[in-house]
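Reviewers of the previous submission asked for a worked example of the structure-prediction workflow described in the proposal, so we include one complete record here. The input consisted solely of the amino acid sequence. No template or homolog information was supplied to the procedure at any stage.
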Amino acid sequence: MITTRLNLLMDAYRIAREQVGEANRGKALPGICLRRCHKLRQIIWPEIRRVRWLLRLISARRARKQENAMNQATDQTNLFNDQPVLSTDMYVLLQLFTNHFGVDRPKDFYGLHHVYHSVHTHPDKLPKSSWSEARVWRAIKACEQAGLIAYGEKGADHKWTITQRGIEARRAADQIARPRKRKTA
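From that input alone, the workflow returned the following structure tokens.
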């Protein structure tokens, strides 16, 4: 683990502090105990900086990996005849049009932005997180250019709706993402 060495050093520092307490009560030599605490502090601070650096690095890699396209074992270039390859963001955006009854509903920007997108990409991730506005706009523009969603103005409503082409693309991507299990006799 990343923090194993740090945990061992922290335990050693706690023991050294207890010995300083004993030295204050006259049960140990104060110079030795204080010197040991000082040496351990000099070792612990660089270790804390190293662990912070590693955690930032891991977090940055996760963020980059989440924005990458779907990494399925199958080749997506032949998935649609004339449609582009769906990125993960486009696929998640197409999933957001379905409500809890499985019916496709028009969505406005607020409805597409204020959703826990990590539920679709990383179901086990806690806490759940939403995308930034720029990322949602990129996904919307990519889906519009591919003809998967359409922007409609009906009276005062300014909402995007999923097109038939988008429904077909989502259905095809669902089959790749979650292949059906075959019954064996």
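The two ends are 45 Å apart (CA to CA). We consider this example representative of the routine output the project will generate in years two and three.
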